[in-house]
Write a structure and sequence with these properties.
Blueprint (H helix, E strand, L loop, with lengths): L6 E2 L4 E3 L6 E3 L6 E2 L10 E4 L1 E3 L2 E3 L5 H4 L3 H11 L6 E3 H12 L6 H14 L6 E4 L14 H9 L6 E2 L1 H12 L7 H10 L3 E2 L20 H8 L4 E4 L7 H10 L56 H23 L4 E4 L2 E2 L4 E5 L15 E6 L3 E6 L5 E6 L1 E11 L8 E5 L4 H7 L8 E6 L3 H14 L3 H11 L37 H15 L10 E4 L6 H12 L13 E5 L2 H11 L8 E3 L32 H4 L4 E5 L4 H5 L4 H18 L21 E4 L7 H11 L10 E6 L11 H5 L6 H7 L28 H5 L4 E2 L2 E2 L2 E3 L2 E2 L5 H10 L5 E2 L5 H15 L33 E5 L4 E2 L13 E2 H16 L7 E4 L3 H13 L6 E3 L9 E7 L8 H6 L8 H8 L2 E9 L1 H5 L2 H12 L3 E3 L5 H4 L7 E3 L14 E3 L2 H6 L10 H19 L3
Parallel strand pairs: 10-11, 12-19, 22-27, 22-30, 23-25, 23-26, 24-25, 26-27, 31-32, 33-39, 33-40, 36-37, 36-38, 38-39, 41-42
Antiparallel strand pairs: 1-4, 2-3, 5-8, 5-9, 6-7, 13-21, 14-15, 15-20, 16-19, 16-21, 17-18, 19-20, 28-29, 34-35
Helix pairs in contact: 10-12, 12-20, 14-15, 26-27
Amino acid sequence: PPRSIAYTPRVTLTPSPSRRSLTPSAPLPPQRTSGHSCLPSAFIISAIVRQNRLLLLTLNQDNMGFNTETRNKLTDILREPGNGILLYHNLRQKYSQRHGKSPCSKKFLRDALLHANFNKDWPGVTIGYGGRSNAPSAVYAVWTYSITCLLTKGQQSNSFTLEEVRMLYGRKHNQSLPLNDTSLTDILRSENVSIRPRATAPLGATSILRDSYVPQYLKDHNRHPTALQWSVSKKRNMDQVISLLAKDFIPAVPCTCTPGISGHGGIYEPNQPFPITPNLRFALQTTILDISPSKVADLDETDSLQEYADTFRHTVKLEYEEQMRLFEHYSLYQHQLKPMTNNTARILIPGILDARPSLSIADIVLLRPIQPIVMYQPDYHGRLTFTPNTLEIQSRIVDLVRGRKDEPDSVVISWELDIGQTELLKDDRFLREYNIRFVPNESFPQKCNTALGWLKGLSKPQQQNVKDLLFPVVAPMVKPLSHDQMSCDMSGLAGDFRSSDVLKPLNEAQASFVRMIRARTLDPTFESTRPACILTGPAGTGKTKTLIAAIADVLGLRKQDKRNKNRILLCAPSHAAADVLTERLTAILRRDEIFRMYSSSRPSTTVSGKMLPFTVTIPGSDTFTLPSPEAWTKFRVVICTCMDAHILYRAQITNYAIRTKRQCFLSYIQSKTPIGLNFGGSEVSCSKEPFFSHLFVDEAGQATEPEVLCPMSVVLDPLPGEQKVEIALIGDPRQLSPRIYSTAAVMHGLGRSFMERILKRPVDCIGRGESHILGPDTLNSLDGPGSSLLDLIRYYAKIDGQEQLTIFLTENYRGHPSFLMMPSALFYYDRLRSAKNLGLDSLSYWIERLRSVEALTNRVEMAVEAPASCEDNMNMYRQVHRQDKWPIHFRAVKGKDTSVSLDTFTGTDSWQNSEEADTAVEIVDALIQSGVAPIKIGVMSPFRGQVVAIRKRCRAKHYHDVNVGTIENFQGVEQDVIILSLTRSNPAFVENDVKRRMGLFGMPKQANVALTRAENLFIVIGNPESMWEDQLWRQWLLFCFRNGLWYGEGLEEWDSVKSGFNDANFVEMLEQVDDESNDTDSVVVSTMEKIHRVHSTDECKSEEIGLNVQKASAEGMLARICHD
């Protein structure tokens, strides 16, 4: 119904021959009515046009209670022209003037008319409640009588929330209540209805964040065919620039190459992307058939590039379709826009930036006006007629803005309407409302399929040269470095190193990776591309620092080699990671030597100002573009996301295309050069080096294989006899994998990174090596004489002591050693060691802050049986010895996790634990009161509902600088203080969490990220009963218990499990724990814990005995760790 009564459509009514009711004739264009500003506070009966259908009030004997004579007289009055809007008391007045008496009382007439509206099939009559006499248009179309009847008949409660009223109304009338909260509150209070404040309501396991009723007719509105379609998004593409670069990067010349090598004309035309046309109505389909291909390959077994490409094309399709289905949950109904002055419009959506899968720039937005678009046209006789048309407007997202303080999140879309479109959308009678849908943009499937198409298009000889990279079976042969080439001293670098650690000495493992890259660079291969060399290690081990040092070495910066022509393509799966690399490289390279490439779909206004000096935009525009051919020759490093490398492939800035163009150009010059003519005594030649000599992929553990294929399509030259590119992958396969939403796509391999797959693939190593870096499932899988745990981690081929494949970093430079004890044992085969220089003043500061948190509750005291003797070296780990210098705190809270209803974004499954949220904010408050700056505090939870709940509580206390986010938000981020809320309290939901790849129980990679984010203070909040059911978190509980770090609630079943400690098997890593073991059959105690644990025990009589026990138990492990 219209929101304003300034304009009202006039209608004429004629009797129907079939029944004595009112039937519309052809409606006329809307005309202004006068006197509306003087309308009193009264009910208004009007006929309105909705969806090209005139809905009328039917007056008949059954629903009115009038006799036939009275009804006919009222019908005659209503049939009079000009009665499109009529007050009920005016109807009585006209009846009295004409017939000399009133038909009935005002109350009876009002109730009878309203009763007719709700008990018949004519819901179109709207009853307007004007409110105060001086504000007649404050609220329009309020169904007061219906609401009163709804809440007073058949309801068990005498108080309601506003949401309950809306839900009850919608379910009864299949129509949403067109009132805002303020107007609805006024109506309820006027009817003396008790209003209850909104509370979180437990819903089902698959519920959405807000339980809102959407009428079926609004959903059907999105399915109806449209008569008009507008596109109001600005086209941002590089097609013209790509076409020019493909032609002008090396001037196009007639191909005069040797016969058999001709046919190079295509390299001067841009590569066409794989055609993808998004099915905008896919998610609206009620039945979706999932047809799998006839053959999906096992990627661990196959070496066929055809099967490889077909499998990933299918998984990419599955993932895109799943994202379209999930995006449909974000649909908005009867929503308003806020047009802005810069050809954009803003859609306010609370909580949209916390939704997953997340919206991104260039996603498609479909808007359908609720009210039809009326277009006036003259008929055959010249009379003006109008036709209502259903319209769909297609736009694109240009920005996403997180709300500050009490402001909601907003989505900014392109809104470039011409004058005619603006006039058609304008209507002074009401504010235009829309149904809004979101569809993921086609970038992901298009770029992935383009790379897979390149792979399938290779000839059989070319495919064979690529197989060694994708399916390695033999470790590469590389000439070892000489003694003079072994130095990794970076002191000779020139640049601004005030904010860089690149000049700090590398440890032995870091230096080994730099030497590995150097050896490959000095001894290039010409037959087939070598398997990628890999740098792995947990957070804080200096992977990025090592990468920057390797880049400086490849570019010859260490020795200031001006003859060095190497050029690097540096990629990462996310813009955030690529921006970090760009900032780090500014310390060693000039501004004109770095190019940070963005897609043209991303406006420059959404990019950090620090990155803009390294980009190129179209003059006078905020659209990114590509540099001129002259600028490319100066670049030493090109940085982009893996997906954006697709731009280089399309522009023919690839090693294969540039080498072929060089060859054509050389042949052309030689054919035009007279015999005997030379150039200064030199022969005409062209460079043999590839344009991109190296490809480095950072955070490779988070990139899907099709993503990594995008930059590979740029740097791989599959023809034999040409110098091949060297490729390196940097990342941690033990932390977050690619975020994939389709379960079927994960099953077929899309959820596993390229790095993780090749690390699992068996490789025959020269000398001796194990099957793969990730190691066997159990210690018993080790076989062969001399096998050690070290072989599980350092998977390499040795040639005269030179590693050639993989380096694993074990020295950690982040955080207190206690932060590494459990991650080392649980995820990294007990190989980590702390290399951070702990300042006593800094440690004392954070320990004092921790005391303020410990003072909030008591430490858990759970008795254990005394050890039988001190002869067992592990007896010390069966007793509690408080480590008061370890900045770790576990707060046990037995809360209740519920799938919740929040005043936030609709359409996202989530969970909340109010008790844990309150505890988290209580700890934040204690830390801030003790002197910790809010900006140093980070609060994590694996569930978005919990993040929203904690964020609201922090904002209520004005702690706006506290960083609150999900586990994914903290990937690659380090914070002084980390507070982790596990949220999950009911073990029955864990199985569903694992299926949907959410939460921290049964999800070791997510748990690894959560446990390794803290820099100075780490606090965990969780339910010990639920944690005990999970093998990983049970070990973490035991760690906190034996070291006196457990506060709050205890374990109810402790008496039944404590006796198991006497017979417990103490091991150093989680892989040694039998999956069938129960409770405390196996206890994991890392080598780092044995070294750093300080205690005094009455049973062992002296501290010296305890220290000797530590030394003896750690001696074997230390010998293996200190291999250098």
